[in-house]
Amino acid sequence: MVRRWCIPLAGAVLVVGSVAASAPAAAAGTASHAPAVRQVRPGGRMISPGSPLTGRSSPQHASQSTNWSGYAATGSFHSVSANWTEPTGRCTSATRYASFWVGLDGLNSSTVEQTGSEVDCSGGSPVYYSWYEMYPAFPHNFSNTVRPGDHFSGSVTYNGGSSYTLVLQDITQGWKHTVNKSLSGAANSSAEVIAEAPSSNSGVLPLANFGTVNFSNSAANGSPIGNFAPTRIVMVDNSGRPKDSVSSLTGGGSFSATWLRAN
């Protein structure tokens, strides 16, 4: 997944697209509001070390990426789902970014259908929010409250033809979005559960210190993702130094990613 930021985080809200539910805004520092930015792009392909931003040379069974970490299975998939807990951003004055999502495609294809949550660091404070994207279309940010410790459930389902249903639920805050979208030409050739360092037009951005994020019930086609011999992906810089660590799968669908460095 490639998120493209053209300007740094700001304090206002950008909310685009239809939603199925809403919730009140949270206080500053714990709010869910997406920053006012242009060309926010939480979508695109996995980037392997040394690859261009397009990720065109990313191998099908890569074990390292400069923007993804987690697990990805290859094959023919009509659904992916997982639960995770929104981690706490540990921010300094540096502007940094981290996102957590489930999706189809992007490992070895040119589209990504995905939904997830975010914690970014702006002005020394964490900013929490959520979104979905049908890359290469622009993303849509939800306005609902997101706080650290919130329990999320996310899924992406291919319905046939060009139809997809994306569901994101914040179980803790009590809101849920069900989005029906169309996208032609998607391969449905991979299923992912990912922690990500977003990217700008100039490359991968510094990874926000999220501590540890825990994923559970990771599934593809309704079965534990571990049944598909998924690739474990570790995020690294272009020199191969790990930016986080990814645990082994337990129970076929649970793992954690732990922050190590920003870049």
Number of domains: 1
Q: Mean pLDDT, as a whole number?
A: 83
Sheet/helix structural class: mainly beta
Report the order of strands and helices: EEEEEEEEEEEEEEEEEE
Number of strands: 18
From the N-terminal CA to the C-terminal CA, the straight-line distance is 17 Å
CATH uppermost class? Mainly Beta
In short:
This protein is mainly beta and 263 residues long. The chain has strands at residues 64-65, 68-74, 79-85, 96-104, 112-122, 125-135, 140-142, 151-160, 163-170, 175-182, 190-196, 199-200, 203-204, 212-220, 223-224, 231-235, 244-246, 255-259.
Draw up the topology in text.
Elements: E1 64-65, E2 68-74, E3 79-85, E4 96-104, E5 112-122, E6 125-135, E7 140-142, E8 151-160, E9 163-170, E10 175-182, E11 190-196, E12 199-200, E13 203-204, E14 212-220, E15 223-224, E16 231-235, E17 244-246, E18 255-259
Parallel strand pairs: 1-16
Antiparallel strand pairs: 2-11, 2-16, 3-8, 3-14, 4-5, 4-11, 5-6, 6-7, 8-9, 9-10, 12-13, 14-15, 14-18, 17-18
